[in-house]
Amino acid sequence: MGDIVTMDDLTNQEIVAVLDDAERLVPVARGDVYLPLLQGKVLANMFFENSTRTRMSFETAMKRLGGSVLNFTSIGTSVAKGETLYDTMQMIDGYADVAAIRHPRQGAAQYSADAVEIPILNAGDGAGNHPTQTMLDLFTIRQAHGTLEGLNVVLVGDLRYGRTVHSLSHALVRFGAKLTLVSPSTLKMPVEIVSDLREHGSEIMETESLEDQIAGADVIYVTRIQKERFPDEDEYAKVAGIYKIEASDLSGAMKGMIIMHPLPRVDEIDPGVDSTEFARYFEQAFNGVPTRMALLCRSLGIDVPKKVK
Hints:
By secondary structure, this protein is α/β, with parallel strands linked by helices. It contains ten helices and nine strands. The protein has a five-stranded parallel β-sheet with strand order 7-6-5-8-9, with helices on one face. A four-stranded parallel β-sheet has the order 2-1-3-4, with helices on both faces.
């Protein structure tokens, strides 16, 4: 049992074990098999920030495993009256067995984990971390390439504020990935993260040009330029729409290369890419269900059967 606030809460061996569990849970995630491993358990979905995929996939994961869900948003609750995060989490500690929390403030997930007894799964804390997204991303990459070891991964877009790429980059270098960071100069990966990645002995390249990186990539991971994270709208306007992948850009791509995106997309990937062999982002979104199932089971100390039928 335990919290998952950052990817440091999981060893490489534990990451692989969770991905193996998720693989076995795919038929349950699709609704082809009913496996009520979490019957009688309650998940609190604590969302203080907007979400579609993360909130719904946590809810689907819990319900497919026979559990129940309390959906909490800051609208229409006592948070609107000024209730503190500490007090809100104390209340949830008595209502649920596990909680997923998304919050605009970096560090809120760790604060919540320190405040309560139940396990906390970080569903995104500001520009900080998003480990459950990282796990579904790793699952998607392993599904496509059969391994996580030594891949050439290109991360594109908002690398400064994008918590998905912060968590994912840390996880990938642990498996020996070579990372190419593509962003405008104002949205570069924070210096402290880059130096941390290099300390792992990983090859890290930074560039502003995406076009030159397509041919050698095993994975191109595209992120949205996040308007809501910009303190200044003029600064956002300067970089909005700076990278856009179209089907014609992929003629030199390697066979087996995949394009990923945590979604929602705005205009970073042209819809014409959707029908190509490279598009993997909608499967990636589905993969949130089996992966979060496996993480919920781990946090609650429930073993996934070696054979699911």
